[in-house]
Amino acid sequence: MVTKITASPTPSKYAKVLTTKNFKNLIPLKLDAEILNYSNWYNLFPIQIRGCQALEFIQPSASSSTTINPSPPTKEWLSVDSIIQSWIYMTISDQLLERVLKSKSKTAWRRLGISGEDIQG
């Protein structure tokens, strides 16, 4: 009898992004230009993204001013980018949402006025 051994799939680098169920609970406020809570939101959001090992979706790489995205983008990359987009959208006011709607994660982040240098480290 021959036993076929199959390798288990390699876990995704973005497993935390792909399995986080209620991101809104991790960011207990909405970014709102009218109540001037930019500093709080700006400090909380990247901490969560860094914890999910996906900081490159909102900040430029060290060697480039753009997000490292595969060419062509993989299904996983597109899924992770969409999830991070939704996290940005659900944690900002309706007024700011109008400014960034339909943007990829990196573009939305930039349109909110946050540069990669702001969140290094």
From TrEMBL:
Name of protein: Uncharacterized protein
Organism: Artemisia annua
Biological classification of the source: Eukaryota, Viridiplantae, Streptophyta, Embryophyta, Tracheophyta
